[in-house]
Amino acid sequence: MISTRQNIDWRSVFDPFSIIYIVLGVFCAAVALKVFMLPNKFLDGGVTGIAIIVNLQYDIDLNLLLVLINIPFLWLGWKKIGKTFAVQSSFSVFLLVIVLVFLDIPPITNDLVLSAIFGGILMGLGIGLIIRGGGLIDGFEVITEFVQKSSPLSASEITVFLNSIIMLFAAIFFGIEPAMYSILTYFTAIKMTDYVVEGFEEYTALTVISREDEKVKELIVKEFGKAISVYKGERGYLPDTFHIKHPCDIIMTVVTRLEVHRMKEAIQQIDPKAFFYVQTIKEVKGGVIKRVGKKHS
């Protein structure tokens, strides 16, 4: 959790769960680097990718590079995002360096595909755990936020663009094949990070507009055990009958992706002409979300 810029929230910094997340995340990232990525010249994105390129190309100590390259981004995070965030991120970076110095695990496979996939999984797991602990080991995420404010591109598009440049340099210095494996590692890491940060169980907002709104509300709440929000609205306004409209309740509920299809089928049995739209939700907190209702048959 990022605090306000003015003060350091020491309770967050020394929170046992935050420290455990960061320590486990750093260990996973270190294993990914030592066992799978560095022996095969595979890159991750961001600061880690830049540090690996410079290390392999110019034989400059990787640990020193990780600290030096991250310093400007950590300073920017301190000034613009939050001091608590900067402290936790600094702790994460320095802990990663310490673990890399003392960790001595030899490569466990010569298979390049396995190295790319499992290196990405471990790196993504590590980054995700560190983010859940309130920090970062890659300051690139900080600069992305500020570039986005003055750019028509989204944060994800900016991140992909900047990391594409890193992968291009990887292709120039190490060859096309290591660069391709690096891209596989990078995208595996991104997906794994998303799973860890957002959860494996993705939530979806299902909105229903139906002439049988009372029956639909009863179905969702009593049969599926889900909470609902109701908006007052109007249905109608069709092209051939624009002047015809009817008041209705617009029903919204939050479900898992595994429940969407089953719930839509049940609603269509009540009203075959019911209108649905579905939205992906990044985060859900509070309310009645995980209550398990009766299985609707």
Automatic annotation (TrEMBL):
Localization: Cell membrane
Transmembrane segments: 19-39, 84-105, 112-131, 158-176
Residue ranges of coiled coil: none
Stored Gene3D superfamilies: 3.30.70.120
GO cellular component, one term: plasma membrane
UniProt keyword terms in alphabetical order: Cell membrane, Membrane, Transmembrane, Transmembrane helix
Highest rank taxon of the organism: Bacteria
Bilayer topology annotation: Multi-pass membrane protein
Every DUF2179 domain range: 232-286
Protein name, as recorded: YitT family protein
Organism: Algoriphagus lacus
Organism ancestry: Bacteria, Pseudomonadati, Bacteroidota, Cytophagia, Cytophagales
